[in-house]
Design a protein that fits this description.
Elements: E1 5-11, H1 19-26, H2 30-35, E2 39-46, E3 52-58, H3 61-71, H4 77-81, E4 90-95, E5 100-103, E6 112-115
């Protein structure tokens, strides 16, 4: 079985761009991302330091790379890129090796299985 791929993009917002400004622009990418072959899941987060992370899980490296290339041709790209601080953007594609992990919950001695699945999260 071909391993899934995590695409991780980290960045800072451009000067004078608020979280609300950024989120309004990034919403324009959702339909495109979800329509790409191999899309599984997407999560957008922001750390206490103000650095954002956009993590997308793909079925394989070919789909991840094809989506990244197609993303660059979309009409929304200039507006989205204008919200990000130049020079702060870093993108990685990494193979996911463990589809199932064992974790210990904080208040129980029983292990809990955490499983990545192929469900798409609705907008």
């Amino acid at each position: 079985m071909t391993p899934n791929v995590a695409e991780t993009v980290t960045f800072e917002l451009a000067d004078r761009i608020t979280d609300t400004d950024f989120l309004a622009q990034i919403r324009a990418t959702e339909t495109f991302m979800r329509s790409c072959p191999g899309f599984i899941f997407r999560r957008l987060s922001c750390g206490a330091d103000g650095r954002w992370t956009d993590c997308v899980i793909w079925t394989n490296m070919e789909h991840a790379q094809a989506a990244a290339k197609a993303f660059e041709t979309q009409a929304f790209l200039p507006a989205v890129m204008a919200t990000m601080k130049p020079g702060s953007i870093q993108m990685r594609h990494e193979t996911i090796h463990n589809a199932e992990l064992r974790i210990m919950p904080r208040r129980s001695a029983e292990p809990v299985a955490l499983r990545l699945d192929r469900r798409s999260v609705s907008a």
